[in-house]
Amino acid sequence: MAVLFLKEMKYKPNDPRNPSSDRFVLSKGHAAPALYAAWTEVGLLSVDDLLTLRKLSSDLEGHPTPRLSFVDVATGSLGQGLSNAAGMAYVGKYIDKASYRVYCVVGDGEAAEGNIWEALAFASYYKLDNLVMILDVNRLGQSQATPLQHDMDVYQKRCEAFGWHALVVDGHNVNELLSAFSTARSIKERPTAILCKTVKGADFLGIADEENWHGKPLGSRSAEVIRDLEAKLKVGASGDIGSTLGRLKPSPPVDDCTPMKLIGSISLPSPPQYKLGELVATRLAFGNALARLGQVCDRVIGLDGDTKNSTFSIKLRDSRPAQFIECFIAEQNMVGVGIGCAVRQRTVPFVSTFGAFLTRAFDQIRMGAVSQTNCNFVGSHAGVSIGEDGPSQMALEDLAMFRAVTGSTVFYPSDAVATERAVELAANTQGICFIRTGRPNHPVIYQPTELFAVGRGKVVRSSGTDTDQLTIVASGVTLFEALRAAELLAAENIQVRVIDPFTIKPMDGALLKQAVQETCGIGDAVEQALSQAGIAHTVHRMAIREVPHSGTPTELLHKYGIDANAIFLSVKRVLTTIKS
Amino acid sequence: MAVLFLKEMKYKPNDPRNPSSDRFVLSKGHAAPALYAAWTEVGLLSVDDLLTLRKLSSDLEGHPTPRLSFVDVATGSLGQGLSNAAGMAYVGKYIDKASYRVYCVVGDGEAAEGNIWEALAFASYYKLDNLVMILDVNRLGQSQATPLQHDMDVYQKRCEAFGWHALVVDGHNVNELLSAFSTARSIKERPTAILCKTVKGADFLGIADEENWHGKPLGSRSAEVIRDLEAKLKVGASGDIGSTLGRLKPSPPVDDCTPMKLIGSISLPSPPQYKLGELVATRLAFGNALARLGQVCDRVIGLDGDTKNSTFSIKLRDSRPAQFIECFIAEQNMVGVGIGCAVRQRTVPFVSTFGAFLTRAFDQIRMGAVSQTNCNFVGSHAGVSIGEDGPSQMALEDLAMFRAVTGSTVFYPSDAVATERAVELAANTQGICFIRTGRPNHPVIYQPTELFAVGRGKVVRSSGTDTDQLTIVASGVTLFEALRAAELLAAENIQVRVIDPFTIKPMDGALLKQAVQETCGIGDAVEQALSQAGIAHTVHRMAIREVPHSGTPTELLHKYGIDANAIFLSVKRVLTTIKS
Predict the structure, then answer these.
(1) Where a domain ends, among A177, A209, A232?
(2) Which NCBIfam families does this chain map to (chains A, B) (predicted)?
(3) Do A78 and A166 belong to one domain?
(4) Nearest-CA distance A448 → chain B (Å)
């Protein structure tokens, strides 16, 4: 940390968010105190600030979060930082085309996470020679020694096999580190890994290289340990005693990158181009909208996990290849890279794959919320309507997952017009946005001029406030089943209201409240919205309740009881119950 | 597939579940038709069966699931099968101590998944020489070429660096494959990777090695392609035309492994040993219960992600080291190995780490449901009550995640007695079970003799059916806050009922119904239970609604409005609203 912050990195200590500055990611977030100490050495924090560590009133939290000006991405769930750093380095090299470099400190314990190996493969594939990984091989995990302990040779072979230039150094030796960073700057077309053999708690009396000290304060031993450390400092440093505070200053960056503010400024070049009744899959509308946004803003980018011909993100790849990052089948890294790309609003990323496969990166998405990311996610092939591929490919848990993410916005557009507007809104909405798209073609039900907003649903069918007997809330494929059910019911003189909520989070509470008051009432989100409004209600849920089977979409909607006929029968049953 | 199923593997074609048989995992599940064809060649399926592929009435689904007798684990979400196979191989070598071997076919596209590298590291660390990975390097992904294409040398270096014996062969050459499998059998203390250079759609006219054929039927070209294939067969096989149907027979297994039926048979050796009022963390009670179950059943095993000294699974490691698998910081592999260990009820696994980090493996857990697994998951350090470590370590999404998993059972025990019973119940419950545990100590509130059941809550405080004005449903740390709030309210002559639901899924609908009817009501699960019972209701939710900060547990419960005082004020506000 001392070599990085005082000699190697180029930045302005009083302006951590400067876009030209070198970036630093502490993937092993539990080493936060070392990060805070570094920013104290360079003058941004005071020694008094350091003493507020882990207090409620202080942003010097247990693990770093972007509540601090010098933290771009939150870390603490291990093995994610290198993907974030790779995203920043990708943007630096290919989009900003700037000279800043990205440094990432990774722990040896977290190097067991597959996400790290996905990131290593990504970084070498894209020749990120502006990225340096510093691997802290201190031999000890939380509860026991790491699998490879101090086998530096194996670490080196693995990194080299993954396409990196890999150097082994004594991580406590300043000169070896300086030389390694200098070599890293000279290596072209490959990222560099500096593999540091270190001792955990080095020089700490009775603690160095010992187990059972992970994350523990020194307690009653602190006085003795500090006295011993100070004595060692005197011996080793030929007159230089104690801190370097104020004596070494980092070099300033090359000023070749300008600040950006993208969110709030991105519009589709023209209204969606569909005709009422035209059959269009929402996944195709997503691809169209992404390509159209990409046309008007060269910072709108797409990330894909080798499903671009199914999600239709390929439309952006084909029209704006420089704004498209193929991440191959490695969703954790894809999400981490997306979050890294979104840092400091350098880009507005749309990360897409099958909705089911976004579950692969739930931890990364969750950490994205802690990172205050503006990264957008699009999950296609929702629900059983994807058909014969079977349950492994069907997104059934995606809404629950994204609803649970703090501060998220969850779009579930039902037609192509609504989908294009969802993409436009997501690009301009702070926090994590998720858009759920579907595989089958459905008719366009909204005019190109229809206005959409987050948290505003649409009444797509109503016979009038006095005659609607019940409200059906449905999205996507089930909205069309609900509309068919409404026809069947109308033929029996039963009028129902059908609501398309557009966003599942937030739910349009006012529209639902009105519907409940005027009539009587999608699962968890609907109930929560009603309860927040203090409205007593019952909700009859219709959803997949078992592991689905392969079959045609029509067969599956029928088998699992969410087709028009099932809705028709349910409504009649509910009305009978109410009347009795 | 032909070499594996007709020459290499030892099994009985008419008894696929025989425990002594070699096991096969098709990690690239989209190649399911090849698997179904193999079982047709050996006589378990008929050619007519094959023609039901992907139909609703057929179990020959788009991707393999254990609805088929010869499938142990569902595949189709990529990069997971090798972990499952490693779990089976671990059990084979160390627990069954039997001679069966485990074969896993992995695609090159899915080799980009970090999960694969976690599994490779795990298998070599544990010297699983009964495990063979067959890597199908066919160069093409779904939407474009793979990153490494046919660079066999890099694949070999990577596998070797991860500790495997790695051989490169022509994947279409029967003799090379036979020789490689023979070598694999001779390699000791290391797993073997057979890296097969193949051509996608080999020998298919106009399709071989071409893009845009992934997952597509031949359509109008089928007649021509089949004619060409048949012509090629005649040329190459010196008189052997077409199928080997019935002519080659696999060798039978060495009969050294007996069937097991564990679920339903596992009991704690004695009631939980806690005194009322004793302060015990539920995570500690989990550790105690796991060790106690492990004592009476040597097939109860624990899997850890280097958090065992925090989750207290270390209690099993210390008392029964042979029943404990340290998986290091690689949660995706840990879950996949757990699912592999649970196959055919060879073991009853408990996979534990911080609840927050189980989100890392949501896709694997979701696939566990499709796999009909009986693997159990335990997530500790739930909610803000973990304190100063900050939001990255706090499980806030775990309940939403596990509730969304098909067929899951979700336990949220509030004291040590309930926790021990939850562990015992989970061991005996089919499907995925999740137990949420907490970090802080709380008083024991149940007698050692208290009976617990899935879906049965407890009324922990009530003044009587006529006097309770409102019901509070709470679990874990918030149950104790609710009990304190109830005291504060009683001092103002407001009586409330307090319910501990014990399981969040299923929720005790009858108990809630009674409470709503007698009084007036944790979030989504409560509302769903009430709506399923057709009871009109309002639910006032109290939960974390923003990314929490570091701080002491008490400070955080206060700051985010879920402590006793906040509950006290909420109850008064709700009662005022009802009365007005």
Answers:
(1) A232
(2) PRK05899.2-5
(3) yes
(4) 31
CB-CB under 8 Å, A547 with B541: no
Domain interval for residue B169: 1-232
C-alpha distance from A333 to closest chain B C-alpha (Å): 9
Q: The CATH number of the domain where B501 resides is what?
A: 3.40.50.920
Q: Which of B444, B473, B488 is the last residue of a domain?
A: B444
Helix, strand or coil, per DSSP, at residue A203: coil
Residue B349, classed as helix, strand or coil, is strand
Same domain for B56 and B137: yes
| Any domain includes B415 | yes
Per the structure, the count of domains in chain B is 3
Count Cβ atoms within 10 A of the Cβ of residue A451 and give its class: 0-12 exposed, 13-18 middle, 19 or more buried.
exposed
Three-state SS letters, A143-163: CCECCCCCCHHHHHHHHHHCC
Please report, for the domain that includes residue B401, its CATH number. Answer: 3.40.50.970
- Regarding whether B202 and B104 lie in a shared domain, the answer is yes
Q: Has residue B154 been placed in a domain?
A: yes
Structure-block tokens of residue A325: 């990052």
pLDDT score for B238: 47
Q: CB distance A63–B307 less than 8 Å?
A: no
Q: By C-alpha distance, which of A377, A375, A376, A388 is closest to A353?
A: A377
| Contact by Cβ (8 Å): B167, B193 | yes
Count of A–B CB contacts within 8 Å? 316
Strand order in the sheet with A458-461: A458-461, A497-500, A471-473
Task: Tell me, yes or no, whether A90 and A212 share the same domain.
Answer: yes
In the numeric block, which tokens belong to residue A543?
């959803």
From the list A41, A176, A331, A424, the catalytic residue is: A331
> How many H helices and E strands in chain A?
21, 17
Instruction: Evaluate whether residue B267 is within a structural domain.
Output: no
Q: Which helix (H) or strand (E) holds B435?
A: strand B433-436
Smallest Cβ distance to A538: which of B76, B79, B536? B536
Q: Which residue of B has its CA nearest to A360?
A: B363
CB-closest option in A404, A544, A556 to B401: A404
Same domain, A219 and A364: no
Same domain, B427 and B521: no
User: Whole-model pTM?
Assistant: 0.95
The active-site residue, picked from B331, B420, B424, B481, is B331
Torsion of CA B317, B318, B322, B323, to 10 degrees: -40
Alpha-carbon distance B146 to nearest alpha carbon in chain A (angstroms): 7
How crowded is the C-beta side of B318, counted as CA atoms within 13 Å?
A: 12
Is the Cβ pair A359, B369 closer than 8 Å? no
- Do both A403 and A540 map to the same domain? no
- With respect to residue B453, please indicate whether it lies within any of the assigned structural domains: no
Mean pLDDT, each 10-residue run in order, chain A (580 residues): 96 96 98 96 94 93 95 97 98 98 98 98 98 98 96 98 98 97 98 98 94 91 93 59 67 96 95 97 98 98 97 98 98 98 97 98 97 97 87 92 95 98 98 97 97 97 89 91 92 92 93 80 68 72 81 85 83 72
- ipTM score for this prediction: 0.94
φ, ψ (nearest 5 deg) of residue B204: -85, 120
Concerning whether B331 is annotated as a catalytic residue, the answer is: yes
Comparing CB atoms, the residue among B54, B114, B547 nearest residue A113 is B114
Question: H-helix or E-strand containing A324?
Answer: strand A324-326
Mutation target among A84, A153, A360 for the B interface, most CBs of B within 10 A:
A360
Binned average pLDDT, 10 residues per bin, chain B of 580 residues: 96 96 98 96 94 93 95 97 98 98 98 98 98 98 96 98 98 97 98 98 94 91 93 59 67 96 95 97 98 98 97 98 98 98 97 98 97 97 87 92 95 98 98 97 97 97 89 91 92 92 93 80 68 72 81 85 83 73
Question: A115 with A339: CB under 8 angstroms?
Answer: no
